[in-house]
Amino acid sequence: MSRRTTLRAVVATVVPGAGSLDERAWCDVEAIVEKAVSERPGRQRRQLRLFLHLLEYVPVLRWARPFSRLSPAERSRCLQFFEESPILLVRRGLWGARTLAFMGYYGRPEAAREIGYTANRDGWQARGGPGP
Amino acid sequence: MRTRRYDVIVIGSGAGGGTVASELVPLAAAGMKVLVVEQGPRLEDHEFTGGELDMAPAIYEAGGGFLTSDGTMTLAFGRVLGGSTVVYTGTSLTAPERVIRGWNVTGLDYEDIAVRTDRFARQNGVHLLPRAQLNENNTLFEAGCAGAGFACEQFPVNVRGCRGSSLCNLGCPNAAKQGTHRVQLPAAEGAGVEIITRAEALRVENRCVTVRVHAKPDGGKGRPPEWEPGIHRLEAAAIVLAGGSIGSSALLLRSGFGARLTRTGHGFTCHPAHVLVAEHARSITNDVGHPKSFFVDRAVEDGFVLETCMYFPFTTAKNLTGFGDEHAAMMRSFRRLQMILVLACDRAVPGNRITVDRNGRPVVHYRFTDRVIDSMILATRAAARIFFAAGAVRVHAPTSRPHLIEATEADRLDERISADHFSPGTTTVSAAHLMGGCAMGRDASDSVTDAWGRVHGVPWLRIADSSLFPDALQINPYLTIMALADRVAERLRNDIASLREAAIGRAADAGDRS
Description:
By secondary structure, chain A is an all-alpha fold.
């Protein structure tokens, strides 16, 4: 299973709305994530690759299927399991993966518009006046 | 490798370095050569776009995602001309008297800090924003404080012509915030101080700095470097480190000073913080207007400070603990969100320190003490009370399970918000007030510098940034950094003649030997 497949499955679980993204939007999500990962130190890049690998195949022990082939509910339970792990390294790995997922999804201007984020350099003037 | 000679070299251009640069203008006017070395780029005004993913990599170290060694906290600090004064919100407070007296540094008086702070506050145009410019994210906090019984104060801010973009933390797109890149550095440069950017200080030794100038990356923001990319050797009669808590500590350590100055890197504090989010039943003005207008200071009583805040979509998503439907629903209600930043007033403790790895890169070790966790819990409960008193229908608390607390549960906050739910690595914690590492004190047994930023036993080396703080400041630190940097510059102006003589003597000795 490719890292791309795992990452898409993580994003769609962390942000359920991502399931309805078209291919072009997915490419935008992936481009943001790839750029962010490429700017991290080599050690962190290796840790992320290792974590995504673990995340993909650890579920085989319980569900007999890798992460990306689980149902949305199973994926969610799996991430919950990682998030509540007593092992700090595992929790950190999940935190890093979810952070990248949020960056990829909410870093897109389309997502910002969808949630109603309208900050503008013109500030109050853009809202029609000098004050609230 | 080319060698250049200066009278004074200042490493860093934030609140400390920018202040030293401007306060050394009399030396430049007298014909001396003063150089500011900044690791980050120099951005043009039009490059401050306010885009979250566009700006963060250009102005923050590691894009704002610098992690502590165990990965449980994110540290945010600027790496751009102007340093962290480019990325803060411009909140301008005078150091608490109890803190300065508590530092117990011989030769450092509160009155002196207060006078200097006042001067820089005036220089930076610090004032209270008129009420008509305060958004509901802030006025609801004020109302909530009144309802919940907390004393709330308005932040003075250093803006001129604020248009209320709400984008302070991404670098003001309207040049309203009066960081050193707007005030002190242009004044210094206009008076003859030289500034170079994209220049990373690798080592400091024997009145000499080795810097690597980096080329502008393809597609990157900012001007190209002023100097040819590559390694440059700089000599000076005096060198001032102002690279911030992490930068100055790491530079000293990788330059070998740690063996004699054993306190280097110790005493790191940072005001660990959570972002708390609440949802109202109606839309409020939150992403327009200055984001940080009010605060509650409970540092003495409960070890925390609450501040209003407002963040951007990705940052907000990251700060909400958890994921999935509940998280997404909170994000979809962005127009109805109110935010409060809760900061713990941590203390310098053994183990919380800065070191360097084998490549000389900084590593920050930080453990959340029980006291810090308790403060964050008290702060979270207080913030939740304020939210509900302001009319919020639900609050997202990172230290509650489940994370959402409905208004109907407002009388169960002590039960719902608990230290049992503080989980390092899961609970998002970040910090932007990075302090300590080269503390002021008596001698090398307890500190790195004296009260004037002079490194113990190294008269040509000075430090002028937040690394000087012997312990946490318990408020937003930039004006105090400026006050301390002003003291460093003042003493340097007094000492420069003898330092130049010493440098000339050393050069002559070297010539005799050769």
